[in-house]
Amino acid sequence: MAVYKAFSFSFFFFSFSIFLLLGNVHCNPNYRDALAKSLLFFQGQRSGRLPQYQKLTWRSNSGLSDGRLANVDLSGGYYDAGDNVKFNFPMAYTTTMLSWATIEYGRRMGPQIQEARAAIRWATDYLLKCATATPGRLYVGVGDPNVDHKCWERPEDMDTVRTVYWVSPDKPGSDVAGETAAALAAASVVFRRVDPTYSKILLRTAQKVFQFALQYQGAYSSSLGSAVCPFYCSYSGYKDELLWGAAWLFRATNAMYYYKLVKTLGADDQPDIFSWDNKYAGAHVLLSRRALLNHDENFEQYKQEAENFMCKILPNSPSSSTQYTQGGLMYKLPESNLQYVTSITFLLTTYSKYMSATRHTFNCGNLLVTPRDNPLKMSYMVGYGPYFPKRIHHRGSSLPSLLAHPQTIGCDGGFQPFFHSMNPNPNILVGAVVGGPNQNDGFPDDREDYSHSEPATYINGAIVGSLAYFAGAH
């Protein structure tokens, strides 16, 4: 059994994964450029009244009356992907990951730290509204997805019903509430020094939302049904979000209350995936920080669970349960596979960072990582490199902007001639990372093929930290 410095093999493996994602068309990838673009993407997903500093000028104000059906203001936040719905479950996860990236790698971001904070705040301002607008309710989404997904129209032209969804004591949603608490708690750490007042508001609200998640336990999928399923069902249940939320509140407060909760929740599943739905591995890596950096033996369990996860991911590990394409790209699931690549490799590089600080090593069998190739030589980040997806599954990108086409495009108006067209999208959603190639490394660049060509906030939310890591290293 060989012993390897995990920093070395995780660093190499991760850099190779990002090399493939960015197209390996450059011998020396410009990580600073990729980082800037990955953050710029979030401007294209904004809902609400856009600020004067908006750089993606093909977007305009939208969803200004969101929340009106419940007599509350729920404007703002992000559209989750290529549609015009605000799903708070993946949005909150995106916010947590952006915050974690900024906490770990903010010093490596250079001038992009301001953009990262702006991207986080655009989400947290909205999440605060959702958590405080009505006592006893946590608003968790705006827009009927079953109606919205039948349309192909710009967010600026939305004429579909903007149904408001919430969870409450009689309609619990511990998963979405736990993730919202995690997002607000993580963001409170980001803003602790630069805006202490805002940080305190975030933390206070996170604590209240988490208490709600804990007191009224249940899955939001059961409470809301077709409003969230099959789009963002909580397939893994809600125990992982309770662990995740408690872990982030412990990180933000260092309070024994949350430490005891972490230890008593009993959420010790050890999957081989990390995503907007399944947070176990993320919680284990986050908690392992105490074992590695603080030498706290009370957290040894989480260090072991984090390392078990790594061994399930890394190629050629005896306990690996992860497939790779011929080109060498991690392959987890057919739909939007790059979301798992970005999320999992964030954990790899962050754990590597913790390990390098303490010269820690661990056994993972006789591991050998060998470089391979990206057969198409394509970047899967829009606007990065010479070859990138041109026909992404995204309404705002694929339809002419209000400046170019002031006339309203109704619900059905966007399908012909735009959605079914073979022409490139008129608006470049710079920095968007799409679902990625299939298991044979194929990518048709077809906007009708949403499982491969649709970008999403939670894909980009997970890649920001890792790009920042490498941007700061070059």
From TrEMBL:
Signal peptide: 1-27
Native source organism of the sequence: Senna tora
One GO MF term: cellulase activity
Homology family: Belongs to the glycosyl hydrolase 9 (cellulase E) family.
Name this protein carries in UniProt: cellulase
Matching Gene3D superfamilies: 1.50.10.10
One of the GO BP terms on file: cellulose catabolic process
SUPFAM superfamilies the UniProt entry points to: Six-hairpin glycosidases
EC number(s) reported in the record: 3.2.1.4
Membrane-spanning residues: none
Tagged with keyword Hydrolase: yes
InterPro entries reported in the protein's UniProt record: 6-hairpin_glycosidase_sf, 6hp_glycosidase-like_sf, Glyco_hydro_9
PANTHER family linked: ENDO-1,4-BETA-GLUCANASE
Residues of the Glycoside hydrolase family domain: 31-466
Top EC category: hydrolase
Keywords: Carbohydrate metabolism, Cellulose degradation, Glycosidase, Hydrolase, Polysaccharide degradation, Signal
Entry keyword Ribosomal protein: no
Record's catalysed reaction(s): Endohydrolysis of (1->4)-beta-D-glucosidic linkages in cellulose, lichenin and cereal beta-D-glucans
